[in-house]
Design goal:
Length: 185
């Protein structure tokens, strides 16, 4: 498991558009259809990464809480599945159902969406305002598997709270850390 940090994603950048298969219900979903009224969190995750597994419960709790306030969560898996079969779409659907994901879990088979966002790791978090302008790209919080810090989602919670209250977002954005996205060779 190689530790990978997220790449820089400039604040104010408009979210790259996409239409992907939602493995939860096997229908195609576009960013325009899925975006939130007050904001959107796009997360690059996967089934097998221990960093994602470590935060899954918090993601579900946060999504349930903030989607009710107008901030939509969208999960995307871009891992190639030939060498990482545990990330296949049918298993994505299974994980989404087992964990009661309240958000779409999209499969980026071509990896073009991950490339458009310059995503590097799982999990990799992006927060956009109501106009799909980037306000945050970084870590969920300081918790990592084995470091003893509780998973609170504090960094992204602060961003979403500020977004909802029309306040400035965090200046000091720390990169997310996790498993590198599994790129097709």
């Amino acid at each position: 498991m190689a530790l990978t940090e997220s790449n820089e994603f400039k604040t104010g950048t408009i979210a790259p558009d996409f239409t992907l298969i939602n493995t939860v219900n096997n229908t195609f979903l576009s960013l325009a259809e899925a975006k939130g009224e007050k904001g959107t969190v796009i997360m690059f995750i996967c089934n097998h990464c221990p960093f994602v597994i470590h935060v899954n419960t918090a993601l579900v709790q946060m999504a349930n809480e903030y989607q009710a306030k107008g901030i939509q969560f969208i999960a995307v898996s871009s891992n190639e599945i030939e060498n990482y079969p545990e990330d296949r779409p049918e298993l994505m659907q299974q994980v989404a159902k087992e964990l009661n994901y309240p958000f779409p879990y999209l499969y980026d088979e071509s990896q073009e969406v991950a490339k458009a966002y310059d995503a590097a790791c799982t999990p990799d978090f992006y927060v956009f305002d109501a106009d799909l302008k980037s306000v945050y790209h970084g870590q969920l919080d300081a918790a990592r598997p084995g470091n003893g810090k509780p998973v609170s989602g504090q960094d992204i919670r602060n961003v979403m709270d500020n977004l909802l209250e029309n306040k400035e977002v965090l200046e000091n954005q720390k990169p997310s850390v996790g498993c590198g996205i599994k790129w097709r060779k």
